[in-house]
Design a protein that fits this description.
The protein is mostly helical. Helices cover about 70% and strands about 0% of the residues.
């Protein structure tokens, strides 16, 4: 037994089984699938303060971009002075540029632990595989649970289900990719915010990378959703939808507002 399993995998596994036993007690169908959803939501609520702070820092950094670009232009011949002026600006605005990395490192072990729990759950062969990791007798399983969700086996991939389910199973990958794109687009600046930035003859590396990531990441995520167990797609979609809601509460529709009827005008009028 390693310390990672003891600190992260086992606690989340016990929570998931607790949710499962509660749902079974009130006769909720597809209890394993709904337990995955509940555990994912619980995890996001647990991380909510950290995510909230990270999103606020990102929003402030976006708003500071014009000022940072002015400093880069003013001190382009003096990198040391530029660094000092940037740090002074961050301090004045109450922004810690390293906080995003710190918060990501804090969340990453928890998300990896949850991922490992879901792998154990969807690939369960015998109740004993889980019972040995549960804290109390009351949580232990006395029979194999139903690892399907609305008729779809949580342990099988959409690619494996294609012959029996048909092309409709592609909706899993499509929904996963679309929700990922929505969340990514919401994290980009609006057209009004971009208009405030200095015009460049050629886009820099960061701009090109951000644009490519915006469109390529959802494609990759959708592909993985098609090739990984359906239970993991259920987890990822719940995680993403909760992230969209959280992103909206902090920064509104963000870059997605440009594509929403009536929203672009509201965003533009804010800067007039």
């Amino acid at each position: 037994m390693n310390i990672f399993d003891t600190l992260l995998v086992h606690p989340f596994l016990n929570l998931l089984v607790l949710f499962y036993q509660l749902l079974v007690s009130i006769h909720v169908p597809y209890a394993v699938g709904f337990s995955i959803i509940l555990l994912t939501v619980f995890t996001r609520i647990l991380l909510f303060p950290f995510m909230q702070q990270s999103l606020k820092q990102q929003k402030k950094m976006q708003e500071m971009t014009p000022e940072i670009n002015k400093l880069k232009e003013k001190y382009k011949a003096d990198p040391r002075k530029l660094q000092m002026e940037q740090m002074a600006l961050f301090k004045a605005k109450g922004v810690n540029p390293a906080s995003g990395c710190f918060l990501l490192l804090l969340q990453l072990p928890i998300l990896i632990g949850l991922y490992n729990v879901l792998l154990k759950v969807v690939n369960l062969k015998s109740p004993n595989d889980i019972n040995s990791m549960l804290y109390t007798e009351s949580l232990k399983l006395n029979h194999m649970w139903d690892t399907s969700f609305f008729g779809l086996p949580l342990g099988q991939t959409p690619a494996q289900l294609l012959p029996s389910v048909g092309v409709g199973i592609f909706l899993v990958a499509v929904i996963t990719g679309v929700t990922q794109f929505i969340q990514s687009k919401m994290m980009t600046p609006t057209s009004a915010e971009k208009d405030k930035l200095p015009k460049k003859k050629e886009p820099d590396f960061a701009t090109v990378f951000q644009t490519q990531t915006l469109y390529l990441l959802p494609i990759f995520v959708g592909f993985f959703a098609h090739t990984l167990p359906f239970g993991l797609s259920l987890y990822w979609n719940t995680l993403t939808i909760f992230g969209i809601i959280q992103q909206y509460t902090v920064a509104g529709w963000g870059g997605l507002a440009d594509w929403l009827p009536g929203q672009k005008e509201k965003k533009v009028s804010k800067f007039k």
